[in-house]
Hints:
145 residues; 10 strands; 10% helix
Amino acid sequence: MKYFAVLTTLLLGATATPVRQRQTTQAKISGFSASTNTNGDGATIGYNFEIAGLVSTHCGYSDEISESKLPNVQQTLCDDPAVRWQFRQDPSLPGTQGRYRIVVIYTPTSGAGAAGFHEWAASDFPLDTDETVYQGASDFIVDMA
């Protein structure tokens, strides 16, 4: 009977404890730009990434082989290697163009990192004759969890 009372107390105590949600941190992306070069001879994507009090770095990608469409960028390190990112256009659904997405991952040496993403409509990346130029806001917030 003693064991039952102790077990009941432990179980009730465990169910009364609120479940903590993982805290989110806001990261600021500023100066975001993305474009292909005229004549289809390369692409450039760049921005500054900051989590106040933790990290501030520049992230960028460029190539000389992309044509008029922005490339998918696999995980790439920023100037501060604690931050890595990737960029891609999601697959299209019938009758639509896929959304663009950037994913940013912050992994400090302490190991307790965070990740977040930002999405854009394809209309923010219009293809004009032979180049794509991002035309949305250059500064935005990414919720990192």
